[in-house]
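Subject: Protein entry, chain in single-letter code together with its fold tokens

Category: Structural biology, sequence-to-fold work with a learned token vocabulary.

Notation: Tokens come from a learned vocabulary of local backbone shapes, not from coordinates.

Start of record: The labelled sequence and token lines come straight after this line.
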Amino acid sequence: MPTDISSKIIKFLFKSLPKILVSFFFFLSFVSNVCLASSGLNDQLNIHSEKYWHELIHYEKSLWSSSGYESSIQNPEFFLSENGKYDPKAELIATLKKMDEELDLNKSDQHAICKFPARFKFLKKHFVLNKNEADLSKCFGYQKWAIESKVNSISLVFATGYLGNPASYFGHPLLKLNKGLVNGKLLDITLNFGAITPAEENPVVYVLKGLFGGYQASFSQLQFFFHHTNYVENELRDLWEYELNLSPEEVEIIVDHSWEILSMKIPYLFLSDNCAYRLSEMIGIATNVRLKNPNVFYAIPVSLFEGITELKKSNGQPFIRKILRVPSRQTRMTEKYLSLPSEDKKLTKRLIQDPTFFSKAEYSDLGFEKKSAILASLFDYYAYKIADEKDENSFKLQKQQVILERLKLPPTEVSFESSQESYIPPHEAQGNFTLRAHVIQSEDHRNIQELMIRPALYDFLSLEAARSQNSELKIFETTIRYSENKLNLRQLDIFSVGTLNAARVDLPDISGLAWKIKVGLLSQNFSCDSCLVAGVDAGAGYALETNKLFSFYGLATVQLQSDKNSYGTTAMTPLFGGFFNINPSWKGHFHFGTQQFLDADRNHHQIIEFENRFGSSKYWDVRISFLQNDQRFVRMSFSYYL
């Protein structure tokens, strides 16, 4: 009996073995597939740590987040996970879930794929989004943005510094989305990143909040026409346009991501999280190129252009396709007038002084080409005066008369000689960070060494790249002196700004206003090693250019300072000076005056300075100076620019 049972069991197992083995292998296969799928999904989810995902969500390293990251975007609606601001993986999972939801055509603009097209296109390369495998054609708001833009190239634009407004001292960059229309550049969409500030913000409050993070900022979009009018026509600032050599895919990424972050709020800091940093970040998302000087910790608008023409893409092609200068109203007026023959210049001035001169034979007998050139120069002159003057009505009437005179002439194109070579583009500017070593010999035979450090920006003798001539803007310039085995702080300029830019044309009512202001720890005189006082040095006057080589100015200056060594607290110094430009490698600046304190029994003393800059490199120059301030000094300096 037991033998029969054993025999039956053996027969059953023998008959069932194939089925058992098949089931077993099926089970193993199922488990294996599940594990592989789980492993594959985990591998896919690991893209939350990829650089591109972090850039799309604007994650930055943070000590206060458990993930080690925090997004700079402040708006909750930018994140699809409750913890998405701090957790890249949670934001990825939530984004996948939201993008796989059904798309309601009545609310399409609220769907995740329509709000975040750059994320959607990136994730489609890694995941199957079953319910939304279609393209973005159902996203009506996004389609309106993308189609109306019709972008075929992108330009980085730099508006030169404007010393009439502290907020514009450093210049300003824009990102222009080019449609490629021959006569429609003013209709191109322009992206601007700027701080959100009250209309009548106090300048001191503005500076303090900007330095220490009191403002939010955002990207906004306007047609280029509005920026062109503001910068070129009203503030009289030249623009430099650098067309980027981007592929269609790179252009598409910038268009898509700009849609995602328009109006999103981001913290703003003058020296770091500013327009230069954020535009560099935007370009970097598409190209993996960051336009920021790695040698300095801060970002300044002009620094975006340092070395930009030397950059190469991964395929070896240059990063910049072409460079275009857009001259301001003032620049156009100057170039047109200076290109006129001397007799036509005299006639132009006569017509400004006496508009009835249009009826005189000296003008009426001219050929239509000469008339057209004179009228074009007059038109820009009056347009410049209208932009520059508060009382503009009289200039408008004279401008209308010029237009009527021009309508009497046949259509003709007037060509003017452009002095393009005299304008240095921003990418050829010297580095913003300056190190300068001084070796000084004094009248009493002392050997003095000094080290000057200037984080930003330029002085009167720096290369004049994309800025006003004969101007300076110095921030936290610090000079340390070593003399007689002692180390002393020689000077600390918190800021020093000024323009001694002479009027380049001799037309009526063209201002040659010169002015300067310096705030910081100032030295009472050049010979004293430890005579620092807190003070302000300010002045105003007039500048005149005699020819292309020489210009001169006169200033009435006032010094207000803390009292030390019974020097007094208030002094006046009339200054006379000038500049000369022998060639690009040799420029000089000199001034002299007599300082007289008003509240101290001190004899007045003479101040003389004569400084020469030799060299036109972006990275270095050599300077030789003669100075007199209590004693006479000869100084030789070597400058290095980062």
Residues 50-135 form one domain. The chain has 15 helices and 22 strands. Residues 22 and 44 are 32 Å apart (CA to CA). The two ends are 101 Å apart (CA to CA).
